[in-house]
Amino acid sequence: MKRHLFGTDGIRGLANREPITAETALKVGMAAGLQFQRGHHRHRVVIGKDTRLSGYMLENALTAGFISVGMDVILVGPIPTPAVAVLTRSLRCDLGVMLSASHNPFEDNGIKLFGPDGYKLSDDVEAAIEAWMSTSLESHRTGPSALGRAKRLDDVHGRYIEFVKHTFPRGLTLSGLRIVIDCANGAAYKVAPDILWELGAEVMPIGVAPDGTNINKDCGSTVPEGVCRAVAEYRADFGMALDGDADRVIIVDEKGAVIDGDQVMALIARSWQSRGTLKQNGLVATVMSNMGLERYLGGIGISLERTQVGDRYVVEHMRQFGFNVGGEQSGHIILSDYTTTGDGLIAALQVLAVLVASGQRASEALSLFEPLPQILRSVRYGGDDPLQSEAVQKAIDDGHRLLGNSGRLLVRPSGTEPLIRVMAEGEDEVAIGGLVDGICGVIRAVAA
Q1: Can you tell me the distance from the alpha carbon of 204 to that of 276, in angstroms, rounded to the nearest whole number?
Q2: Quick check: pTM over 0.85?
Q3: Residues 418-432, buried b or exposed e (16+ Cβ, 10 A)?
Q4: % helix / strand / coil in the chain, to the nearest 5?
Q5: Is 102 a catalytic residue?
Q6: Could you report how far apart the first and last alpha carbons of the chain are, in Å?
Q7: Which of 113, 250, 298, 337 has a C-alpha 20 to 30 A away from that of 143?
Q8: Residue 93 and residue 106: Cα distance in Å, rounded?
Q9: Among the CATH numbers 1.10.3810.10, 3.30.830.10, 3.40.120.10, 2.130.10.10, which is that of 11-154?
């Protein structure tokens, strides 16, 4: 069954425009509630959100939808996406919901759903929810005496803080480390600095003053320049930037250099291999991860398996084949010994554990391989999918022939925005730059 509303990471779009409206959120609540009502127990759903202004609208609309089909609602307010996944399981909920558009600007918002096991829903389940939405939902409203109830959970931050702290090795402390953390004025603005402080670090927080419209604005994982400046200003040992819902992290070393997710995954995989805890002696990444990562891992006997772009596909592959480390170059790191989805804080703590145990500086520990030159460009379009054009397909085919076995070319639509992303990597940066610019030019001409 084909999905229309759900993309690679839930439903996403411009707030107060379809599909991110109160009306559609109400229907999503009703449909998802009906899909996950199994048995005769009281059914419950936990709803979290980031700090976007539109979160109030969507939260109330979803709550009304769930209550109207007899589900109890637990509201937890602004909290990271991985916390919702954890709470869905620990509170024995039938469903979890996170309202966030991740790293997008405040004008956007999204609806992410988690099953009772804390994992994001499969394509088939999302399609089933859409099928419910296409029916007459009014006939499924519950009677007045069976309506659900809503309750706000007050101690949720403390629960998540303790959960994350327990992923840091016992016997180690962050005492003596000066850490800058950028919370992107997003979901982790309260919990993230407290976690680092409780583990002993001297914490310099930035991006911790959300006002509903400044989430990800000139801050966070997509704009790490703020952390770089702060690391230099405070002479910090370590910097980290989360995105709006804190499921991804970008690391900055003590010299102010940005470290991407490939180096982080390599460090964690090597560390877990040395401890004998790396399952399948392998790592799962996406087609976007650098060939340098693949070569490095192969040199130390660790396999790399690739999936299509999207952390949900990484998780599905990990679950199917028994891996416990995976992620994306963008900073989504999934460590399934602890979590069911990406968690920027837990990933950063694993890196910090290596630094503390080894005595290395971040610049030393996170320079495991030299990445091949990789260039990524995005082209926005407004009409038909440019990838259906013969001219675009010919440009892509010519690019593959030009690179041969010396590099990689990937052209794909974004799963969350009307963008075509063009990525190429190889030994010759000038050559791949020209290749990417040429393909982008053809796409723009077709989309004009």
Answers
A1: 34
A2: yes
A3: eebbbbbbbeeeebb
A4: 40, 20, 40
A5: yes
A6: 32
A7: 113
A8: 28
A9: 3.40.120.10
Please pick, among 54, 68, 100, 102, the residue that the annotation labels catalytic.
102
What is residue 206's three-state secondary structure? strand
Is cis: bond before 193, omega within 30 of 0?
no
Closest CA to 231 of 205, 249, 195: 205
How far apart, in whole angstroms, are the C-alpha atoms of residue 382 and residue 154? 44
Contact 422, 299 (CB under 8 A): no
Q: How is residue 39 written in tokens? A: 């048995």
Q: What is the pLDDT along the chain (448 residues), one digit of tens a residue?
A: 567 899 878 999 999 999 999 999 999 999 999 999 988 889 999 999 999 999 999 999 999 999 999 999 999 999 999 999 999 999 999 999 999 999 999 999 999 999 999 999 999 999 999 999 999 898 999 999 999 999 999 889 999 999 999 999 999 999 999 999 999 999 999 999 999 999 999 999 999 999 999 999 999 999 999 999 999 999 999 999 999 999 999 999 999 999 999 999 999 999 999 999 999 999 999 999 999 999 999 999 999 999 998 898 999 999 999 999 999 999 999 999 999 999 999 999 999 999 999 999 999 999 999 999 999 999 999 888 899 999 999 999 999 999 988 889 999 998 778 899 999 999 999 999 999 999 999 999 998 7
Residue with tokens 């994001």: 120
CATH class label, 159-257: alpha beta
Could you tell me which CATH number the domain at 261-365 has?
Answer: 3.40.120.10
Domain 374-447 has CATH 3.40.50.10420: no
In this structure, are residues 197 and 167 in contact, taking their beta carbons and an 8 Å threshold?
Answer: no
Task: Delimit the CATH 3.30.310.50 region(s) of the chain.
Answer: 374-447
Any residues with CB less than 8 A from the CB of 368 and at least 6 apart, and which? Answer: 263, 266, 267, 270, 296
Q: Per-residue DSSP letters for 26-53?
A: HHHHHHHHHHT--SSSPPEEEEEE-S-T
What tokens appear for 162 in the block? 């303790």
Domain with CATH 3.40.120.10 in the chain: 11-154, 159-257, 261-365
Q: Which residue has the tokens 């931050």?
A: 157
Decide: 372 and 290 in contact? Cβ < 8 Å. Answer: yes
Confirm if 58 and 135 have CB atoms less than 8 A apart.
no
Structure-token pair, residue 271: 């560390």
In what helix (H) or strand (E) does residue 88 lie, and over which residues does it extend? helix 81-90
